[in-house]
Specification:
It is a single chain. The chain has 314 residues and is of the alpha/beta class. The chain has 2 domains: 7-208, 3-Layer(aba) Sandwich (Rossmann fold); 221-314, Magnesium chelatase subunit I, C-Terminal domain (Helicase, Ruva Protein, domain 3, Orthogonal Bundle), CATH 1.10.8. It is built from 14 helices and 9 strands. The protein has helices at residues 14-23, 30-41, 56-67, 83-86, 120-123, 127-132, 167-170, 184-193, 197-201, 211-220, 226-241, 251-267, 275-286, 301-309; strands at residues 46-49, 71-75, 87-92, 97-102, 109-113, 134-137, 140-143, 149-154, 175-177. A 5-stranded parallel sheet has the order 2-5-8-1-9. Strands 3-4 form a two-stranded antiparallel ribbon. Strand 6 (134-137) and strand 7 (140-143) form a beta hairpin. The longest helix is centred in the last third of the chain and has 17 residues, at 251-267. The chain is globular, with a radius of gyration of 20 Å. The model is unreliable at 1-5 (pLDDT under 50). Its EC number is 3.6.3.-. Keywords: ATP-binding, Hydrolase, Nucleotide-binding. This is MoxR-like ATPase.
């Protein structure tokens, strides 16, 4: 599948500062970092599925630090309850009333670490917050902070103690990416420099308060030509007509694809979306939403690549 080579950003650009700072911590993963940043600029949520120890948690810590946002980490376990995430109400005898104690989900960047180690009941505590940016507890609805960005990590589904995320939960994530092993040069630098978690703690914020919302608005304003919309709809139709998939991409996935393509173009400093932008972000948008009819597993990169090759640009 053709992919677009990232264009160099202006040195004075805040996005360049974010990428540079993150790349100094997460070595050799520029493409994955750009994809995570595009997800944030598109106001989505990010799922990172990979083996333990490849830097998933460190990436979340680093992004929160460089963005200067309030960060909360939730370690998911099999005995966790929804109230451990949302919060609880306690009765205060002095005031003869209940007081709500917010849970760790009330933060700008929430790391749901090893989300598939919790039961489906606990996983569902994130559904309303991720979709509607609010939480309803004991009959009262409370808004989430703005911006609100969930980065969830999960271990491969075949690992012991993992509960696969249901389709409704997977669909709340705009993108799913994997970090993979570092290349030889990056791993050598890692071995020589020691662990990177400490480096993440020392990263300085690259954005002033309120600047992220401005960048998100600018990304959403990137121009999309009618011909590009035709191409996006052709890709959507191809997923829905493909017999190897259980079902095609939904309208929500279509909006996510367009928002992510806009954000990718914005990171590259362009004012309009190209077909290559759509092709670049499509695997991260589609892999966790498309299931193979024959095996029931998620679609692979080869399946998405073949889909793109068979869909004409005009």
């Amino acid at each position: 599948m053709p992919t677009q080579a990232p264009a160099p950003l202006r040195k004075e650009s805040p996005l360049a500062e974010i990428l540079d700072a993150t790349n100094r911590v997460i070595l050799g993963k520029d493409g994955e970092i750009r994809m995570a940043l595009a997800c944030l600029l598109a106001r989505g949520h990010l799922l990172i599925e990979d083996l333990p120890g490849v830097g998933k948690t460190t990436l979340a810590h680093t992004l929160a630090a460089v963005l200067g946002m309030r960060f909360s980490r939730i370690q998911f376990t099999s005995d966790m309850l929804p109230a451990d995430i949302i919060g609880i109400s306690i009765f205060e005898r002095e005031r003869s009333s209940f007081r709500f104690i917010p849970g760790p989900i009330f933060a700008h960047v929430v790391l749901a670490d090893e989300i598939n180690r919790a039961t489906p009941k606990t996983q569902s505590a994130l559904l309303e917050a991720m979709e509607e940016h609010q939480v309803t507890s004991e009959g009262e609805t409370r808004p989430m902070p703005d911006p609100f960005f969930v980065i969830a990590t999960q271990n491969p589904s075949h690992h012991i103690g993992a509960y696969p995320l249901p389709e409704s939960q997977l669909d709340r994530f705009m993108m799913r990416i994997a970090l993979g092993y570092p290349d030889h040069a990056a791993e050598r630098a890692l071995l020589e420099g020691g662990g990177r978690r400490e480096s993440a703690a020392s990263v300085s914020a690259c954005l002033a308060p309120g600047m992220l919302a401005q960048l998100q608005s600018q990304a959403a304003a990137v121009h999309v030509a009618p011909a590009l919309l035709d191409y996006v709809q052709a890709l959507l139709a191809a997923t829905r007509d493909e017999p190897r998939f259980v079902h095609g991409l939904s309208p929500r996935a279509a909006l996510a694809l367009l928002a992510a393509a806009r954000a990718w173009a914005f990171i590259d400093g362009r004012a309009m979306v190209l077909p290559e932008d759509v092709q670049t972000v499509l695997p991260a948008i589609a892999r966790h939403r498309l299931r193979l009819a024959q095996t029931g597993s998620g679609a692979g990169s080869d399946d998405i690549a073949e889909l793109v090759q068979r869909t004409p640009l005009s």
